Backbone:
């Protein structure tokens, strides 16, 4: 299951999370973001122990600016409330698995 975040829910769902959180920063109108969405959804059902979330950068510009998002899609893996890893561009399920587990 993927949780869509807002400026009001980001802190609780990501920064205060006990488990690792993978966040997909996206825009609804961009083709690479639309291509990543079903892959991200599938990976969320396959990878246990990690919370999967999305942030629409058009709806949450302050969060995007805080994390320096300049192109989308961008994935950020948060551990203990801190950004641990970043990947930009469309990813395959295998790439997402490696990104989260390595």
Residues:
């Amino acid at each position: 299951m993927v949780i869509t975040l807002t400026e009001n829910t980001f802190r609780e769902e990501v920064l205060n999370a006990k488990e690792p959180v993978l966040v997909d920063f996206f825009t609804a109108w961009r083709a690479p973001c639309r291509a990543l969405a079903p892959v991200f959804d599938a990976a969320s059902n396959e990878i246990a122990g990690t919370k999967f979330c999305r942030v629409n950068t058009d709806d949450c510009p302050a969060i995007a600016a805080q994390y320096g998002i300049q192109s989308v899609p961008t994935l950020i893996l948060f551990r203990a409330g801190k950004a641990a890893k970043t990947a930009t561009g469309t990813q395959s399920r295998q790439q997402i698995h490696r990104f989260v587990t390595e």
